[in-house]
Amino acid sequence: MSPSQSTPSERVETLPAAMSEGFHPLALSKALFFTAAGLSFLLSVYLWFSGDRDRGVFVGLWVPSILSAGTLLLGGGARRE
Q: Residues with Cβ < 8 Å from 68, sequence gap 6 or more?
């Protein structure tokens, strides 16, 4: 049977062991960027309400920067021509 005619269960067996066990590097990378952005947001809120408003705003500006960096670094595969 050719690869284009194989069933989905047969195709899964040909994937690398790490991916077949549920570990996907792209998903992990996305989770790390979202975690970093979330921690930055929480730190920003903490600083704001603890009275250090200038630092809270500064750290709060990291959130879109982290998410933009993630989009730039992880979205490199999708190109329009």
A: none
Residue 17 lies in a domain: no
Which residue in this structure is represented by tokens 């190109």? Answer: 79
Q: How many residues are recorded in the chain?
A: 81
Q: pLDDT truncated to tens, each residue of the chain (81 aa)?
A: 555 565 555 554 454 554 556 668 888 888 999 999 999 999 999 999 999 999 999 999 999 999 999 999 888 666 565
Helix pair 53-60, 25-49: axis angle to 10 deg: 160
Which domain range does residue 73 map to?
Answer: 24-81
Does the pTM surpass 0.90? The reply is: no
Beta strands in 1-81 (DSSP E): none
Q: How many folded domains does the chain comprise?
A: 1
